[in-house]
Hints:
- The structure holds two protein chains of two kinds.
- Chain A is an alpha+beta fold.
- Chain A has five helices and ten strands.
- In chain A, a hairpin with a 6-residue loop joins strand 9 and strand 10.
- The radius of gyration of chain A is 19 Å and the shape is elongated.
- In chain B, the strands form three sheets. An eight-stranded antiparallel β-sheet of chain B has the order 1-5-4-3-2-8-7-6. In chain B, strands 9-11-10 form a three-stranded antiparallel β-sheet.
- By secondary structure, chain B is α+β, with helices and mostly antiparallel strands.
- The chains are: A alpha+beta, B alpha+beta.
- The interface between A and B is medium-sized, with 25 and 26 residues.
- Chain B: Component of the endosomal sorting complex required for transport II (ESCRT-II).
- Chain B: GO terms for molecular function: phosphatidylinositol-3-phosphate binding; ubiquitin binding.
- Chain B: It is found in: Cytoplasm; Endosome.
Amino acid sequence: MQRVGDFKLPSFFNYPPYFTLQPVRETREKQVQLWKELILDYCRTLKVFTIGLEEDFPLFSNPEIQRTLTHEAREVFLSALVSEGRAEWINKGHKKCLILWMRIQDWADCVLRFVRDNGLEDSVMTVEDIRSGIESRGTELEGIDRTVLMRALKLLEQKGKVAIFKGTSADDEGVKFSA
Amino acid sequence: MEARRWLPSAELTGSGRPVFLQGEVECALISAVDLEPEEDPTGTSTLRSGLLILTTHRLIWIGGSEGSAIPLGSVVHAFPPTKRSIRSMFSSPRIRIQCSVSGDGKVVDGQGGPLKSTSVVTIVMRGKGDDPDEFFARLWEVMKGRAWVATAGDVRRSVEGNAGTAGTAEAVRMPVVGVSGILRKEQEMWENTDKSLHDAFQDLNALMSKAKEMVMLAEKMRSKLLSGSTTQGSAGNDEEMGSKDMQEWLLSVGIASPVTKESAGALYHQQLSRQLADFVEVPLKKAGGMIALIDAYCLFNRARGTELISPEDMLRSCSIWEKFDVPVMLRKFDSGVMVIQNKTHSDEEVFSRIKSMASKPNALRTGISPSDAAMTLGIAPALAKEHLLTAESKGLLCRDISPEGFRFYVNVFPDLDPSNIFMIKPHSLFSVWVSTAAAAAASG
């Protein structure tokens, strides 16, 4: 079985037509679904948050059978994730894609659980602390993408669960968790 | 049926063209023609609005799926069409021909036997724009040519030859003895050939009358060449077989009486279409039920000799097949490639062959290319590609485009489950593929 890092690849990864965009509708639909699941699975396992269309992404080529996805195919598969709400284009040029292997709502729930588990109600933390502080070590929030975290916090702010404010340093923001 | 009894029947091909006699060539066609026998007070015996074909041997009348013919040998006299007068302006032009008939009033070939009696048959041309004078002129020309007599004579002569009786001409010849004898015989043969070629090309009318000899000459050359190639070298060689096949094609005399614009006039496309339908039968069988339009065009024109047709005429002839009851049809693939195929040709059979081909271990590993399919199916690569693309659209295959080219693999996507991407469905095509790929990886 082939591996990329800690990720085990499925058998069909060596099936050459998997790397050619199929023109027949039914076949294409199945192919797109398989790619969506593979990308999400891979990103979840290896905690990958962004995929650049023009960068080398391990899934997009298989040196074993010498096949590489075309730019068009990459865009098709990522767009399929975007249309399902499992990914978002970071910029308008569709060059970079944010992969939401957990939905923003699920990330927000993670933050609330983190606050409750650590008794952080009514206290203040910086965004950076949540991502890489001692408290988050070993939790799902460790190493979370900043954009994803901010989106989750904004969702919580709308619900009145947190308040976001400008911190002392220009590039960091503070978060006050409500009780 | 009752009405047709007074004329001998004429055999027709599957697509409604007459079956020609040996050496028979068609000269003119007119549509919407009635044939009236002389004594027919009730009008029940009249053959109404059919197609009349004038050949070198017969006047063939085709109505619906049945044909009748007046052998030109039975025609005693043909009366020119009535001159244009005020009265005839409004009636259809008529040509009357006097035929010999047997005792019961049936038209029979008057050659040989004593003439019993004659009857007059009237050809009524109801179609607009047909020139009766022109048709009459053609009829007259053909009558003068007496091609049917030549055929009858030839048959008799060949019968004598088979019986082994030496003709008088043979007796006068010098005996063939030694090298000089052989040389003299060669020389004589060349002179004869040269003479007939020379005569034939003097003018086109003469060529018509020489057609039979030309055909025989060509046939003789062909059999000589073919026998030559079999005696030289060892047989059974693949290449040799190919070249022999090729030679067969090149040397086949083809269509003795091609439909031409001149002879068929307004009926040109219709008749051409029927002739083409008859013609493609053999190449279709050889090609396994489907042949590219381009290939059929080449073969057809090759068979027609000098009477070449344009691609437009070919396409038009094929596209009007729908209107006739012919066993072939024109098919256009999604890619625009056009082919001729039997109506009974089934894609299913081709698909099952493609599927079994794509499921072989080697094909599972490396896929199949259009040229692989062409080899296995015994068809042209362009056609093979069409078949593969159709099989792909049916979900049997899927494609792989890489720097190595365009290949097709058996489609295993239906066996895959997006909700569990690591699952290998047991006994599925996918599981077969996985084990084949694993075996290849282990050995490689």
